[in-house]
Amino acid sequence: MRLSTTHRTRPREGEQVNGDAVLVRSEQGYTLLAVVDALGHGPVAADVAGKALRSLAQAPLPSSVEALVNVLHGALKGGRGAAAMLALFDGRFLHCGGVGNVDLRTLGTRVPVFPTPGILGQPCRKVHPLEATLAPGDRLIFFTDGLSSRLDPLTTQGLSPEAACVLLMERYGRSTDDATVLVADVEGE
């Protein structure tokens, strides 16, 4: 199985740059999905998000979710910090975990991930990743708190990933915060 992904992201109304960021990276049969939400808004938050993505882009794959969270934690130490949700897909299993207020909803296979409270780059509890077996037709929706927690994945049923992102941003996006949504559909062989 493989993933078909797309995302939408935009800064808070009145800002020119975004403190949210997305990385999708495939290497050696593994796909890393990362959604980062730096604390605050504007240029400083955008710098933090960029630093987070650069560190994940250089991290070795395959790796564990815990190791990738530690890479982020180390890269952001001493700064403003960020929340993030990370998922590693190996063609069958999704390994997933996060810190802070980035969420994951699904259509199809239930992935009951509970992000660890805290801020990457500052002292926080250990991440407790989970593993789920995915199936063709499953949809994963990652989103930052720039979208309402009332986000209902059923509203995207039957839509392409691109159309789903557009709908979710229009329906659930808040103008008072940076907002990001990443949609990943599981496709068969």
What does this entry show, briefly?
With 189 residues, the chain is an alpha+beta fold.
Q: Can you tell me about this structure?
A:
It is a single chain. This protein is α+β, with helices and mostly antiparallel strands. The chain contains 3 helices and 9 strands; from the N terminus they run βββααβββββαβ. It has helices spanning 42-58, 65-76, 161-172, and strands at residues 2-10, 20-27, 30-38, 82-89, 93-99, 103-107, 130-133, 139-143, 179-187. The strands form 2 sheets. It has a 5-stranded antiparallel beta sheet with strand order 2-3-4-5-7, with helices on one face. Strands 1-9-8-6 form a 4-stranded antiparallel beta sheet, with helices on one face. The longest helix has 17 residues, at 42-58. Residues 2-186 form the PPM-type phosphatase domain. It comes from Stigmatella ashevillensis. It holds the Pfam family SpoIIE. This is SpoIIE family protein phosphatase.
Low-confidence stretches: none
- Average pLDDT confidence is 95
Assembly context of the chains: single chain
| Rg (CA only) | 15 Å
Structural class: alpha+beta
Number-wise, the strands total: 9
Helix content: 10-25%
Order of helices and strands: EEEHHEEEEEHE
C-alpha end-to-end distance: 5 Å
What is the count of helical runs? 3
* Backbone shape: globular
Order of strands in the sheet with the most strands? 2-3-4-5-7
Share of β-strand residues:
25-35%
Major sheet: size, sense and barrel closure? 5 strands, antiparallel
